[in-house]
Every structure is written in C-alpha cells, then in structure tokens.
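debug: dumping io for the single-chain case to check the tokenizer round-trip. Nothing else runs in this session.
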Amino acid sequence: MLELSHEDMLRLNVLVMNVEAVRIDERTMTVYGLSARGEAKVQLNPTGRPAVYLKAVREFLSSAALGSASGYPVHLNRWTRMGQARDTNLAKLLMLGEPEAITAVVCAPGLTDDLARRAWWADPVSETARRMLARECVVDGSMGKVLADFLVEHLPFETEARVMIDTVRLVLQPGLVSAETRQRLWHKGATDGAYRIGFLQAEPDSLPDPLPARADAAVMDAELAALGERGNVLAALLRRALGTGGQSFLASCERVLQKPTEQDAVVALLNTLSGYFRPVRHTEAASQDVAAMVEDAQAAATREPQAQELLTALPTLQHEVVAVYALARMDEAIVTPIFARSSASGSLMRRKIEPVIRPVLDQIAVLRGAGHG
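debug: decoded output
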C-alpha cells in the first residue's frame, strides 16, 4: 500500500485536529479544511500515481475520523441516500472528504442547521442544497436563505423539468425568498410550465395573480361551509375548488396541461392535480382507462353518502361532484402506457397524450364553470 509522504502526513494530522469538515480537490491535489478561523489547506505532494495517493489520503482521513483506515470502503457501502446514516457519526462523516459521505449526512434524520453549514461548505452543489431544503431544521435555520438564494441563482441553468419543479417548490417555502423573487419565478412560469408546477405544489391555495371565485360560488358558499363543518369532506373540497384559490389552481393546471413540453412535467402535474382532490378518492384501485374513471365517478356521485348529502342540499352541483371524483383518480397512471412506449417530447408528446389529457381538461372545465363534460 502506498504511504503518504512524511510532510503530508504531518500536515494532514495538524489539519484534522483543527477543522470540522474536509474537502478534497482532486484536480489540484489539495485538501481543504473548514475551521472557526476560516479555511485551511494542505497541498499534497504525491509519492506515486495521483489516484493511488488520493486513496491513501482518504484512508488516512477515515482512520483519523472513524478509527479505521479499512473502515472507509465498509462504511461507504452502508451509506445510502435514504437517511440511514447513524446520527452519532454525522460530524465524523464530514471529515472524510468524500461526496457520498456528505450525501449521507444531508439525508440523515439527525441533520442540524450547523451540520448543514459544514456540509454546504464541503459540497456546494444544487443537489446538496435541494436535499437540505427538504428538511425543516434547515429551512428554519441560518442556512435556509443561503441555499434558496443559491438555487434561485442557478435555476436558469437547469434543464430537467423534474429538477426545476423541485427547486421552485423548495425555495417557495415560507421565509426563504423575497416577494420580488417569488413574482419573478411566477412570471417565468408563463413560458416554462415547470415553474408553475413548482408553485402548484408549494402553495396551491395562494398562487400569485389570483383569479376571482367562480361566479356562483357565493350562492353556495354558506351551504358548502355548513356541510363541511359537519364532516362532509366532499363539500369542503368543492368549496375550496370553487373559491378564488381553487379557481386559480385549476386555471394554472389547465394552462400547463394544454402545452406541456416534457414527460416529467406531465407526470408531476397529474399527480399534483389528483393530489388536490385526493381526500375524496374513493378507491385505490389502479386504472389507466380515463373513460372508465369518469363512469365510476358518475356512479360514485349517486352512491357515496357524502355525495348524496351534498346533492340533496345543492342538486345543481351534480357535474361538479363527478368532476371531483374523476380528477382524484386521474394521476400519472393514465399516461404510463404511452410514456412506456415513447420518449417523445414537445408537440409529438402532446399529440400522443391528447386522448387521455382531454378528459382531464374537460373535468377541470366543469369545475371552472365552463362546461358540463
């Protein structure tokens, strides 16, 4: 096994005794350390091939942090992105100079704002920021705004719809970005639906530029509110959908669904839309037949007790009740067979999915008062 030079061994010993996180720049063969006084570094002097020497450096760091040089690969195999790293070892993992160890830390249940600060210094990339902003302790801590600002700055360079949606959703958490930034992201969504989907996931009831409630909502509001207070979830959900927040949500869903450009965006939007109505989903049975879903929703409107109670009080909402039941089931499953056979995007994708998206748009139109399906 290749041994470290005497000079490197001495300097690395001093480094690890005085820092709280380590980062390795393989290109320049430099080991950096984060300390209370700032950043320290050790310029390595390899005694053999760089790759082999860096392996020896990592084994040294593992021995210093975990007590075993051979423990490095063993520990690495146990780290996952599912939050299974032992909380007692998190600070030590940040001393290894290993990106996968940092991922283990940011995914661990025991992550704290201070550990997030160290992890961000060690691996300041967008994926690390997104993972940490999924944690309440980070959002509420000193690192929340730092990470959100970074993600907003780098958002224009993201190209994958899934990443853009997740980023917008995460930075829109309360207290992270200014009102001006929020409005700027919303306007960007006029030309890039992924941004709007992020808004729909983050704040479905308080979107920017809200629309008015449906014209007849005020007439039914008191009755829907009373039913909702008595435990009728369907009535409470319909009241939500017909109000200003719901109409804004539905209009945004409609706009994005009319001209999606990527498969991931379609999947995310369908899941977001069906999730909005999920409280009244009356069956978990998987189905890819949208026509059957509408028929089943029509049957549910006549047999479900909450629907019967609501329609006894407000019989004119028959079509709206069917729409709510139908939309609650119209998730990604309806496009799965199409996407399984095609990787198309843009206008070609829209043509392929039109037969299953049209029924979704029809049900949205019912709730917006534009038609009865």
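debug: round-trip ok. The chain has three domains: 1-123, 124-203, 211-367.
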